[in-house]
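Hey, can you fold this one?
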Amino acid sequence: MLRFDTDKMKDLDPTSLQHLAPLHGVLMGKEIVENWKEVEQFQARPDDVYISTYPKAGTTWMSEIVDMIFCEGDQEKCRREAIYNRVPYLELRIPGSPSGVEQLQVAPSPRLVKTHLPIHLMPESIWDKNCKVIYVARNAKDVAVSYFFFHNMVKALPDPGPLDHFLNNYNKGNVSYGSWYDHVNGWWEKRQEYRILYLFYEDLKENPKREILKVLHFLEKEMSDSLVDKIVQHTSFQEMKNNEMVNYKTIPNEFLDQSETSFMRKGIAGDWKNHFTVAQNEIFDEEYNRQMAGKNLHFRTEINVNI
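Sure. Predicted structure:
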């Protein structure tokens, strides 16, 4: 298996990766854009499983759930590698390390694959091979707050500036991976054309067992009730926060600075209320209502149970 080499990251200046460039109407990291042909020509396999989200919407959580399912609930098997080697990041490209495509080309089947790509940028071979995709959508406000903190941690992302400034860019789609609105709606509109299981982060927080059973059914897997409970426990926020195979503590601090904020920060629904001012919330709601007008996709911005 070809592994992503975190040691080589120490020799690379992360600020050299901060630049974004447009790709078919979506802002992306310049390394991804410059090497786009590699992603575009990626060859899917029929038994691949793709885990797709807009950034900061539960990607690592769902990746660990799916890997746990494929490992039949064996926690030790899930500790065999860091999550970014167990579930390679399709479009990732960092100089000096294997790209996501290179990792996947030599990975044994069935492959689990992470991506943040909007649906119109997904490689055609994924649809040609009728692959399964699990999409997780999270409400726009919590994603905005989480993405803001993530920008402050990841030195390869542009400086977000103050929250006001970041929210303005976020709502305009002037951030990596573009518009949250286009992303969640694009996947929602195509969910019945392809084999897509569309889940909501808030539902997963509210009742993880119920949602994991949906994933099992979608993957055509059977598992005992006790094993499902084991997956619920293993993928709880506190367990994952303390698990070095998923909490990204293996990434050098020069790239992912967790000294003030951890990668697994809060993992709750409704945290935006702790950060938005009244004015920011009013402006955000106005823009949200404008961009979601006429859509039949609805989100909850808070839930009663946070676990």
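The chain has a mean pLDDT of 89. Let me know if you want another pass with a different chain boundary.
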